[in-house]
């Protein structure tokens, strides 16, 4: 709660502390509070264990896994250097708008599923948005990917989020997996670099 209060106060820095500002600060602090990750019981699926973990506790492992993910799925951006903003992610986690799920095998991080918690500007309804979904190739057999997604779905539903959105790159088969799980394709994303394709950094 202290982090949520500090984050709320920072939004009103420089303003006179009137009654209305104080009320707004309290509302912000209550609205943006970290999600209690302990409420999500770990789940074992074969050799994998799924759970929610604080980003700050797993940064080194997460960065290594993210680089493997980047090399496999982000070929359209390979001229750009991967530079994940972990500070921003940790801030969102503190505000209760991001949850990091992990898949571990014998204690080693082998999978990563991160979601953002949002409210639609079009309907004012809450939704969970997948930002990253990745399992190392040797752990994709059977229903591991499906079980990982289902774990995140249950966590989102537990928090009151009925709508779950996910994206997939054309270079993999995640779309087929999502459709098998009753997700419906609703859009296609296009990317254009306005100053030409990025070139690989030296």
Please provide a brief summary of the model.
With 202 residues, the chain is an alpha+beta fold. 34% of the residues lie in helices and 20% in strands.
Task: Please provide a written account of the structure.
It is a single chain. The longest helix has 15 residues, at 59-73. The chain is globular, with a radius of gyration of 19 Å. The protein has helices at residues 2-10, 19-31, 59-73, 86-94, 144-158, 174-180; strands at 43-45, 48-52, 98-105, 108-119, 126-135, 163-165. 34% of the residues lie in helices and 20% in strands. Strand 1 and strand 2 (48-52) form a beta hairpin. It has 6 helices and 6 strands, in the order ααββααβββαβα. The mean pLDDT is 87. With 202 residues, it is an alpha+beta fold. Strands 1-2-3-4-5-6 form a 6-stranded mixed sheet, sandwiched between helices.
The helix-and-strand class reads alpha+beta
User: Total number of helical segments?
Assistant: 6
Binned strand content: 15-25%
Helix content: 25-40%
Mean pLDDT: 87
Helices and strands in order:
Layout: H1 2-10, H2 19-31, E1 43-45, E2 48-52, H3 59-73, H4 86-94, E3 98-105, E4 108-119, E5 126-135, H5 144-158, E6 163-165, H6 174-180
Parallel strand pairs: 5-6
Antiparallel strand pairs: 1-2, 2-3, 3-4, 4-5
């Amino acid at each position: 709660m202290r982090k949520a209060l500090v984050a709320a106060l920072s939004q009103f820095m420089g303003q006179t502390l009137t009654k209305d500002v104080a009320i707004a600060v309290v509302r912000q602090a209550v609205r943006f509070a970290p999600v209690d990750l302990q409420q999500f019981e770990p789940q074992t699926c074969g050799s994998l264990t799924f759970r929610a973990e604080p980003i700050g506790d797993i940064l080194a492992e997460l960065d290594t896994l993210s680089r493997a993910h980047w090399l496999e799925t982000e070929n359209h951006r390979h001229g750009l250097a991967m530079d994940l903003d972990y500070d921003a992610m940790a801030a969102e986690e503190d505000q209760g708008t991001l949850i990091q799920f992990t898949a571990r095998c014998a204690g080693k991080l082998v999978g990563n599923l991160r979601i953002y918690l949002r409210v639609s500007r079009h309907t004012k309804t809450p939704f969970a948005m997948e930002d990253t979904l990745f399992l190392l190739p040797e752990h994709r057999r059977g229903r591991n990917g499906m079980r990982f997604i289902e774990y995140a779905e249950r966590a989102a539903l537990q928090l009151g989020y009925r709508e779950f959105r996910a994206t997939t790159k054309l270079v993999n088969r995640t779309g087929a997996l999502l459709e098998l799980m009753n997700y419906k394709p609703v859009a296609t994303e296009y990317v254009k670099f306005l100053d030409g394709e990025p070139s690989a950094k030296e």
